[in-house]
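USER: Please consider what follows.
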Amino acid sequence: MTEPDRMDERLRALGLAEAQRMAEALFADVMARDVITPGRGTREAGRWIGDLARQAYGPAARRTEPVIRSGPHTMTPYEPEPPDRVVGEDDVVVADLGPILRGYETQFARTVAFGNDPHKHSLVEDLPRVFDAGRKAFYTDTGITGRQLYAEVQAVAAKAGWTLGGGHVGRLVGADPATDFHHGHAFLCPDNDQPLRRIVHGGWQAHWILEIHLVDEQQGFGGTHKGLLNL
């Protein structure tokens, strides 16, 4: 396999960043239109978001719909097709827009809270703070490993009063699943003792998604904040 040149690398990085920009714009439109709202089913909201994506981005948008989780389903961030559920007046809702954009490795998720429960609104506020702490740790330590970044995120989450959901806090983006995802080195997890700044299969520079999943196990809800770590 021919190793990518600098222009290939730059185009790949620009594609990843553009995918995130598109997802951010789509999410802002979704919130402005009250697509996710109490009384509406999560699958109906997902279909509506898919239609908005296809109107905005045409062929770049897949027929696949985003994944919308509400209430107790926010505790299972990796479930690909959670059951349909009507959003409640006091629900936490996670919008995972990752499946929408064709030809891009889009990984983007945000969380919203309805009602007046201060604990749930604290979750929404803490998610980007923990995310930002993870990014800060990455940029502060040029030799940081997946294990070290996981530990940093775990410590910040615990200090804020939350438990991490799932066994990792992110993964490689734009990698070849057949060659790069068969071991813990592809994830930001305790098993990854490799530096995150490295070259992966095919000669590509490693790029990472940071996935923050915070849960309250006693009250049975959680949230997700997902985006590019190093671009």
